[in-house]
């Protein structure tokens, strides 16, 4: 089994990174992952570039030399004092010149690798950088995206950021991260961590990879490999390896050709669609520890499922899956869908009689047909994806809360429990943003699709309706909706953030359901509650939205009556102070809110309207300043929060 071609391809795509001013200096390694893009470790660049990130660097390979810049940094930060996981140490570097260069092949699999070869650069004799490689085995994992590297003479200084190649499958499965301080071996970052670039942080206004850098990067990667000649492709290297992939009826060049076409399609509207398609292609249910989230990953999971199985028509299974994928976006992306369908039909025709078993559109399963026909609910929308955070006060420890996170996929009426507090001690309001950072970040990775971000709903008791949850962010509570150089944007600026009534858990009351159904599609209008009377609520119009010009803490009585009357949408001012009744500020608040509501039809658009106002405040728009402390209760009875399980704390 010759590994020479694989080594040649990996070496040609591995680069060294250093300062423009000194071409001999070596900061670390990286590799070409797509045309014009280099993947490396963030720590290679973090302390060597200006804080604003617009400093230039030099990328050099065996046959290439080009100026470049840091374009995207890790998508999140450490959430507590334990430090960041390996997945946070990735960075994307953009070349500043248009040069022709090779690219590595990134695996579509997510199962643990075995025999590995690491590539990178080191400082040689006389200080001259030299290319380096070394063999080792993976002997374990570190968190979700770390690979521990076994026996190896030593990983030299400068190799961080280089590719980790699986010698059995002929594909890059990770990035060299660190060497052990004492002894051999080290740590690598699995390629699965690249999914975090779906919400990467652009550096110095970088926009080249659009709203979803991960998806666009992989599209360019797969498209580039789909255009390569056989002699220069990683598929040929895999075949020459005599790897398990080369010996199967679904060949390496089939994978490259298929994924090049799949990458042109929009992402799945519902991540649950991908495992259902795999199960349909395999002809039975599968157990999923973690569901595949996109078409490419689904292809890799299908290969993993077939690994070790004796399947007489493996190529038919892949074609069945790809054919189903081709049908999903026939209306939204007809040209791209037709391209994948043509590939499936052509490849099926090569199989003779067994190729006829690839289904035709007339045999599309009903369960998948209905899922494919329904596009993903847009944001805003009543059926959009949402995360609900329950904050349940501890009955004994005053000021502490127990929390749960529920996730609703787009178009799905029943939630699933995503994460919950397990210590039994709860958390204070100051601790909650930190405790919730990791579970929310992980959940957003699955529920967000490009610019369509899941709504964030906080279910709290009415006495806590004035919480500034819209100012929370990944790690700290922001100072204000107004811009501040030390703050990233809070949640309320880039996603819908609303409140729900914790005491409405379980089956919704009839008056709540009835009132909600009346507001759907109705022209909204403000119902100012200046001097509240039950009669005012009972005879409110279908589109009436109760409006309070004072904080919830000062409106316990009115809020209670509003909720008992079945209203699921309420607006109020979080911070207004009323020592002697309403004043001119109240009048302006009511007038501005009423004007906003007059232009809206149906409650479904209200969360996005509030978000847009918060975004304008963050940009210092004086015309939106009145809405800085506007709070919204948006309590949809069609998505009731499940009843709590019994939980007690020791007194």
Automatic annotation (TrEMBL):
Taxonomy of the source species: Bacteria, Bacillati, Actinomycetota, Actinomycetes, Kitasatosporales
Domain of life: Bacteria
Pfam families named among the record's database cross-references: Trypsin_2, VMAP-C
Source organism per UniProt: Streptomyces diacarni
UniProt keyword annotations, A-Z: Hydrolase, Protease
InterPro entries assigned: Peptidase_S1_PA (IPR009003), VMAP_C (IPR045450)
SUPFAM superfamilies per the UniProt record, alphabetical: Trypsin-like serine proteases (SSF50494)
A GO biological-process term: proteolysis
Domain vWA-MoxR associated protein C-terminal, chain residue ranges per copy: 399-637
Transmembrane segments: none
A molecular function (GO) term: peptidase activity
Protein name: Serine protease
């Amino acid at each position: 089994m010759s590994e020479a071609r694989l080594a040649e391809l990996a070496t040609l795509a591995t680069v060294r990174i250093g300062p423009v001013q000194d071409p001999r200096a070596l900061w670390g390694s990286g590799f070409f992952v797509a045309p014009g893009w280099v993947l490396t470790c963030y720590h290679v660049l973090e302390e060597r570039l200006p804080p604003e990130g617009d400093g230039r660097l030099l990328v050099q390979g065996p046959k290439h030399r080009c100026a470049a810049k840091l374009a995207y940094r890790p998508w999140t930060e450490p959430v507590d004092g334990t430090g960041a996981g390996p997945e946070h140490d990735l960075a994307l570097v953009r070349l500043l010149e248009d040069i022709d260069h090779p690219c590595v092949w990134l695996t579509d699999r997510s199962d643990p690798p075995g025999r590995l070869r690491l590539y990178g650069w080191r400082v040689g004799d006389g200080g001259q950088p030299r290319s380096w490689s070394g063999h080792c085995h993976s002997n374990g994992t570190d968190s979700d995206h770390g690979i521990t590297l076994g026996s190896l003479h030593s990983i030299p200084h400068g190799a961080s950021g280089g590719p980790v190649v699986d010698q059995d499958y002929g594909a890059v499965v990770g990035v060299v991260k660190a060497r052990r301080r004492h002894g051999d071996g080290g740590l690598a970052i699995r390629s699965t961590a690249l999914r975090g670039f779906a919400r990467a942080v652009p550096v110095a206004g970088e926009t080249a990879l659009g709203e979803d850098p991960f998806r666009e990067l992989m599209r360019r990667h797969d498209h580039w490999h789909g255009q390569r000649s056989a002699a220069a492709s990683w598929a040929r290297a895999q075949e020459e390896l005599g790897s398990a992939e080369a010996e199967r009826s679904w060949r390496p060049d089939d994978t490259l050709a298929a994924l090049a076409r799949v990458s042109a399609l929009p992402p799945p509207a519902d991540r649950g669609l991908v495992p259902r398609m795999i199960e349909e292609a395999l002809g039975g249910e599968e157990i999923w520890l973690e569901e595949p989230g996109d078409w490419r990953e689904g292809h890799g999971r299908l290969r993993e499922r077939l690994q070790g199985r004796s399947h007489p028509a493996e190529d038919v299974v892949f074609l069945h899956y790809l054919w189903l994928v081709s049908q999903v976006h026939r209306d939204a992306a007809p040209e791209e869908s037709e391209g994948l369908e043509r590939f499936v039909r052509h490849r099926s025709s090569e199989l003779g009689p067994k190729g006829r078993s690839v289904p035709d559109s007339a045999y599309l399963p009903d369960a998948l047909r209905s899922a494919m026909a329904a596009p993903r609910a847009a944001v805003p929308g009543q059926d959009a994806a949402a995360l609900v955070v329950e904050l349940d006060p501890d009955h004994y420890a005053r000021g502490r809360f127990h929390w749960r996170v529920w996730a609703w996929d787009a178009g799905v009426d029943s939630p699933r429990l995503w994460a919950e507090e397990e210590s039994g001690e709860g958390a204070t309001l100051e601790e909650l943003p930190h405790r919730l950072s990791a579970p929310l970040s992980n959940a957003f990775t699955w529920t967000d699709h490009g610019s369509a971000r899941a709504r964030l709903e906080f279910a709290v008791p009415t006495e806590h309706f004035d919480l500034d949850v819209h100012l929370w962010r990944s790690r700290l509570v922001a100072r204000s909706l107004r811009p501040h150089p030390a703050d990233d944007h809070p949640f309320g600026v880039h996603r819908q953030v609303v409140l729900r009534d914790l005491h409405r858990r379980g089956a919704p009351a009839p008056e709540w359901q009835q009132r909600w159904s009346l507001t759907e599609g109705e022209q909204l209008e403000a119902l100012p509650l200046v001097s509240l009377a039950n009669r005012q609520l009972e005879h409110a119009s279908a589109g009436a939205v109760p409006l309070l010009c004072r904080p919830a803490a000062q409106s316990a009585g009115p809020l209670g009556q509003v909720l008992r009357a079945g209203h699921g949408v309420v607006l109020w001012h979080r911070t207004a102070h009323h020592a002697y009744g309403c004043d001119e500020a109240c009048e302006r608040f009511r007038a501005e809110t009423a004007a906003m509501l007059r232009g809206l039809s149906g409650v479904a658009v209200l969360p996005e309207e509030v978000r847009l106002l918060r975004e304008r405040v963050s940009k210092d728009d004086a015309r939106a300043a009145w809405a800085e402390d506007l709070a919204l209760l948006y309590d949809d009875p069609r998505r009731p929060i499940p009843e709590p399980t019994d939980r007690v704390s020791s007194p």
